[in-house]
C-alpha cells in the first residue's frame, strides 16, 4: 500500500495516474470525489472507497480520507515507489465570478481536457502540442498577474511611488506616473518571475514564495518559445504529459495563493481607507 497527501482546502476531486503493477502502463482513474469534511466533529475523518480497473484487468482500491486536520489517500495494491503514481488535485470552478482569477482558472481547467485530446495524437503531433500547451500555461500566469494587479497598483499612491522606484518604466518621458505604469502594463510582460517577485514583495509588501519548480518551468518555457524547444546542449526538449499536468497544478496553486493574498490586501486597504 502507498499513501499520498493532498490539499483538502483547494481539492474537490482527485485523479490518480498509476503505473500498473501488472502491465507497467499508466492507467488513470476517473475523477474521485473527495469526501466532504465533517464540520460538526473536527476529529472525525470521512472516508471514500473507490475501485479502479486497468485496461489489462488489474484491480485497484483507492481510499480517500478527509478530516479537518488530516487529508490523505491510499492505493492498496501499490508498493512504496514514489514514481509509480501521480496525484492530480482538482478544484471545482466557483459558480460565481467573485474570485479575481475566475477566467484564468477556467483556462487552466480547459487545458486539462485539452491534454486528454492531445494524448490521443501520434508522437510527433503530441510532442509538438504538449510543448506549446506547456508554454501557454506559464503565459496564463503572466496574464493573470497583469489583469489582477494593474488596478490595485493604480488605486494607491504609495504603490504608485514604489512601482515607479522599482521598475522605473519609460523614465525619459514626461508622462505622469500613472501613465507610465499604464504603458508598462500595456506593453511589458510579467512572465519573468523576477518581476513577479518584485511586484508582490516590494510594491505590495506581500510575502510571495515562488515555487522552485515554477522557476524551472520558466526556463523550459523560454527554451520552447525562444529556441524552438532546442536546449543549449543541443537536444530537443520534450514536455511529458506528467510535466504538463504538474505545470497546470502548480500554476493553479500559484494563482490561488496570489489571489488569496490580493483579496486580503484589497480588504485591508478598504478598511484602512474607511478609518482614515
Ligand atoms: Zn495494467
Compose a concise summary of this entry.
The protein contains seven helices and eight strands, in the order E-E-E-E-E-E-E-E-H-H-H-H-H-H-H. By secondary structure, the chain is of the alpha+beta class.
Annotate the secondary structure layout:
Elements: E1 2-5, E2 13-19, E3 26-28, E4 32-33, E5 46-53, E6 59-66, E7 71-75, E8 85-90, H1 102-119, H2 123-154, H3 157-167, H4 177-187, H5 193-203, H6 212-226, H7 241-274
Antiparallel strand pairs: 1-7, 2-3, 2-4, 2-8, 5-6, 6-7
The protein binds zinc ion (ZN).
What does this protein structure show overall?
With 276 residues, the protein is α+β, with helices and mostly antiparallel strands. Helix content is 48%, strand content 16%. The chain is built from seven helices and eight strands. It has helices at residues 102-119, 123-154, 157-167, 177-187, 193-203, 212-226, 241-274, and strands spanning 2-5, 13-19, 26-28, 32-33, 46-53, 59-66, 71-75, 85-90. The strands form two sheets. A four-stranded antiparallel β-sheet has the order 1-7-6-5, with no helix packed on it. Strands 2, 3, 4 and 8 form a four-stranded antiparallel β-sheet that branches. Helix 1 packs antiparallel against helix 2, helix 1 runs antiparallel to helix 7 and helix 3 (157-167) crosses helix 4. It is flat. It starts with a strand and ends with a helix. Mean pLDDT is 85; it is low at 93-97.
